Protein backbone atom coordinates (compact mmCIF):
# COMPACT_ATOMS: atom_id res chain seq x y z
CA UNK A 1 0.00 0.00 0.00
CA UNK A 2 1.35 3.39 -1.03
CA UNK A 3 0.39 5.40 2.02
CA UNK A 4 2.67 8.25 0.98
CA UNK A 5 0.38 8.65 -2.03
CA UNK A 6 -2.52 9.58 0.26
CA UNK A 7 -0.41 11.85 2.44
CA UNK A 8 0.51 13.84 -0.67
CA UNK A 9 -3.08 13.93 -1.96
CA UNK A 10 -4.22 15.09 1.49
CA UNK A 11 -1.62 17.86 1.62
CA UNK A 12 -2.65 19.10 -1.82
CA UNK A 13 -6.13 19.84 -0.49
CA UNK A 14 -4.50 22.93 1.00
CA UNK A 15 -4.00 24.22 -2.56
CA UNK A 16 -1.16 24.41 -5.04
CA UNK A 17 2.18 23.16 -3.67
CA UNK A 18 5.68 22.60 -5.04
CA UNK A 19 7.66 19.42 -4.34
CA UNK A 20 9.72 21.49 -1.93
CA UNK A 21 6.57 22.69 -0.11
CA UNK A 22 5.41 19.08 0.24
CA UNK A 23 8.83 18.07 1.56
CA UNK A 24 8.62 20.89 4.10
CA UNK A 25 5.32 19.60 5.45
CA UNK A 26 7.00 16.25 6.10
CA UNK A 27 9.64 18.11 8.12
CA UNK A 28 7.02 19.95 10.16
CA UNK A 29 3.67 18.98 11.62
CA UNK A 30 2.86 15.92 9.51
CA UNK A 31 6.43 14.61 9.84
CA UNK A 32 5.94 14.40 13.62
CA UNK A 33 3.83 11.30 13.16
CA UNK A 34 4.25 10.38 9.48
CA UNK A 35 7.77 10.63 8.14
CA UNK A 36 8.77 10.44 4.48
CA UNK A 37 12.14 10.83 2.89
CA UNK A 38 12.87 13.56 0.39
CA UNK A 39 13.93 10.81 -2.04
CA UNK A 40 10.51 9.09 -1.85
CA UNK A 41 8.45 12.21 -2.47
CA UNK A 42 9.61 13.11 -5.99
CA UNK A 43 9.06 9.66 -7.55
CA UNK A 44 5.62 9.54 -5.90
CA UNK A 45 4.73 12.94 -7.42
CA UNK A 46 5.76 11.62 -10.82
CA UNK A 47 3.64 8.50 -10.39
CA UNK A 48 0.61 10.46 -9.18
CA UNK A 49 0.93 12.76 -12.19
CA UNK A 50 1.06 9.79 -14.59
CA UNK A 51 -2.02 8.32 -12.89
CA UNK A 52 -3.91 11.59 -13.32
CA UNK A 53 -4.48 12.18 -9.61
CA UNK A 54 -2.45 15.37 -9.61
CA UNK A 55 -1.39 17.83 -12.26
CA UNK A 56 1.24 20.57 -12.40
CA UNK A 57 2.07 23.85 -14.02
CA UNK A 58 5.61 25.07 -14.43
CA UNK A 59 6.31 28.28 -12.57
CA UNK A 60 9.40 30.39 -12.98
CA UNK A 61 11.14 31.28 -9.77
CA UNK A 62 13.47 34.28 -9.90
CA UNK A 63 14.86 34.66 -13.40
CA UNK A 64 14.98 31.14 -14.73
CA UNK A 65 14.65 28.53 -12.02
CA UNK A 66 11.66 26.39 -12.95
CA UNK A 67 9.53 24.62 -10.42
CA UNK A 68 6.49 22.45 -10.76
CA UNK A 69 3.43 23.56 -8.85
CA UNK A 70 1.12 20.63 -8.18
CA UNK A 71 -2.64 20.59 -7.71
CA UNK A 72 -5.18 17.87 -7.00
CA UNK A 73 -7.36 16.78 -9.95
CA UNK A 74 -11.02 15.77 -9.52
CA UNK A 75 -9.87 12.16 -9.83
CA UNK A 76 -7.27 12.77 -7.14
CA UNK A 77 -9.90 14.22 -4.84
CA UNK A 78 -12.10 11.14 -5.39
CA UNK A 79 -9.12 8.81 -4.79
CA UNK A 80 -8.34 10.56 -1.50
CA UNK A 81 -11.97 10.42 -0.43
CA UNK A 82 -12.21 6.71 -1.28
CA UNK A 83 -9.20 6.03 0.98
CA UNK A 84 -10.44 8.28 3.80
CA UNK A 85 -13.83 6.57 3.94
CA UNK A 86 -12.50 3.01 3.58
CA UNK A 87 -12.82 1.11 6.85
CA UNK A 88 -9.63 -0.81 7.59
CA UNK A 89 -8.97 -3.58 10.10
CA UNK A 90 -6.78 -2.45 12.99
CA UNK A 91 -3.10 -2.92 12.11
CA UNK A 92 -0.77 -5.30 13.87
CA UNK A 93 0.68 -3.86 17.10
CA UNK A 94 3.45 -1.41 16.23
CA UNK A 95 6.83 -2.91 17.10
CA UNK A 96 8.41 -1.28 20.12
CA UNK A 97 11.93 -2.51 20.87
CA UNK A 98 11.63 -1.38 24.47
CA UNK A 99 8.70 -3.76 24.94
CA UNK A 100 10.84 -6.63 23.65
CA UNK A 101 13.48 -5.72 26.26
CA UNK A 102 10.75 -5.53 28.90
CA UNK A 103 9.66 -9.04 27.95
CA UNK A 104 13.19 -10.33 28.68
CA UNK A 105 13.62 -8.31 31.88
CA UNK A 106 14.38 -11.43 33.96
CA UNK A 107 17.85 -11.51 32.34
CA UNK A 108 18.68 -8.26 34.15
CA UNK A 109 19.63 -7.52 37.72
CA UNK A 110 17.32 -5.29 39.73
CA UNK A 111 19.76 -2.34 39.34
CA UNK A 112 20.04 -2.83 35.58
CA UNK A 113 16.26 -3.02 35.22
CA UNK A 114 15.86 0.11 37.35
CA UNK A 115 18.36 1.97 35.16
CA UNK A 116 16.72 0.85 31.90
CA UNK A 117 13.25 1.86 33.03
CA UNK A 118 14.43 5.13 34.55
CA UNK A 119 16.14 6.06 31.28
CA UNK A 120 12.96 5.31 29.35
CA UNK A 121 10.92 7.34 31.84
CA UNK A 122 13.18 10.39 31.44
CA UNK A 123 12.97 10.21 27.64
CA UNK A 124 9.21 9.68 27.58
CA UNK A 125 8.79 12.70 29.87
CA UNK A 126 10.86 14.79 27.44
CA UNK A 127 8.66 13.63 24.58
CA UNK A 128 5.53 14.46 26.57
CA UNK A 129 6.89 17.90 27.26
CA UNK A 130 7.46 18.51 23.50
CA UNK A 131 3.91 17.39 22.80
CA UNK A 132 2.55 19.65 25.53
CA UNK A 133 4.38 22.59 23.96
CA UNK A 134 2.90 21.78 20.54
CA UNK A 135 -0.53 21.45 22.10
CA UNK A 136 -0.19 24.80 23.84
CA UNK A 137 0.96 26.39 20.57
CA UNK A 138 -1.96 24.89 18.68
CA UNK A 139 -4.53 26.01 21.22
CA UNK A 140 -3.20 29.57 21.40
CA UNK A 141 -2.82 29.99 17.62
CA UNK A 142 -6.10 28.39 16.65
CA UNK A 143 -9.55 29.71 17.58
CA UNK A 144 -11.38 26.41 17.90
CA UNK A 145 -9.00 23.55 17.12
CA UNK A 146 -11.25 21.18 19.08
CA UNK A 147 -14.21 21.81 16.82
CA UNK A 148 -14.96 19.46 13.91
CA UNK A 149 -15.39 22.40 11.56
CA UNK A 150 -11.93 23.86 12.31
CA UNK A 151 -9.16 23.28 9.72
CA UNK A 152 -6.93 22.47 12.73
CA UNK A 153 -9.19 19.69 14.02
CA UNK A 154 -7.00 17.01 12.40
CA UNK A 155 -3.90 18.40 14.10
CA UNK A 156 -5.83 18.47 17.38
CA UNK A 157 -6.77 14.81 16.91
CA UNK A 158 -3.25 13.48 16.32
CA UNK A 159 -1.79 15.63 19.10
CA UNK A 160 -4.34 14.65 21.74
CA UNK A 161 -3.88 10.96 20.84
CA UNK A 162 -0.07 11.31 21.13
CA UNK A 163 -0.45 13.08 24.51
CA UNK A 164 -2.70 10.31 25.77
CA UNK A 165 -0.25 7.64 24.57
CA UNK A 166 2.77 9.26 26.26
CA UNK A 167 0.90 9.90 29.54
CA UNK A 168 -0.19 6.28 29.54
CA UNK A 169 3.36 5.08 28.77
CA UNK A 170 4.72 7.21 31.64
CA UNK A 171 2.19 5.94 34.16
CA UNK A 172 2.97 2.35 33.16
CA UNK A 173 6.75 2.99 33.50
CA UNK A 174 6.21 4.53 36.95
CA UNK A 175 4.13 1.55 38.01
CA UNK A 176 6.82 -0.92 36.85
CA UNK A 177 9.61 1.15 38.44
CA UNK A 178 7.77 0.98 41.76
CA UNK A 179 7.62 -2.83 41.44
CA UNK A 180 11.34 -2.98 40.54
CA UNK A 181 12.27 -0.82 43.55
CA UNK A 182 10.13 -2.95 45.84
CA UNK A 183 11.99 -6.14 44.83
C1 LIG B 1 2.50 17.79 16.35
C2 LIG B 1 1.54 16.99 15.77
C3 LIG B 1 1.53 15.62 16.03
C4 LIG B 1 3.48 17.23 17.16
C5 LIG B 1 3.47 15.86 17.38
C6 LIG B 1 2.49 15.03 16.83
C7 LIG B 1 5.38 17.61 18.52
C8 LIG B 1 2.42 13.58 17.06
C9 LIG B 1 3.43 12.86 17.56
C10 LIG B 1 3.36 11.41 17.86
O1 LIG B 1 2.36 10.75 17.57
O2 LIG B 1 4.32 10.95 18.45
O3 LIG B 1 2.52 19.14 16.12
O4 LIG B 1 4.41 18.10 17.67
UniProtKB/TrEMBL annotation:
UniProt domain Transcription regulator PadR N-terminal: residue ranges: 8-80
InterPro entries (alphabetical): Tscrpt_reg_PadR_C (IPR018309), Tscrpt_reg_PadR_N (IPR005149), WH-like_DNA-bd_sf (IPR036388), WH_DNA-bd_sf (IPR036390)
Organism field: Bacillus amyloliquefaciens (strain ATCC 23350 / DSM 7 / BCRC 11601 / CCUG 28519 / NBRC 15535 / NRRL B-14393 / F)
Domain Transcription regulator PadR C-terminal span(s) in chain numbering: 94-180
Pfam families, sorted: PadR, Vir_act_alpha_C
Entry protein name: Transcriptional regulator
Amino acid sequence: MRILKYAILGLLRKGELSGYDISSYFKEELGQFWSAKHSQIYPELKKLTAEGFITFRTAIQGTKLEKKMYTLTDNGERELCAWLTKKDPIPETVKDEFMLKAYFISALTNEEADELFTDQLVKRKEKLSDLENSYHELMTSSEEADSFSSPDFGHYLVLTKALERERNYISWLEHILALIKKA
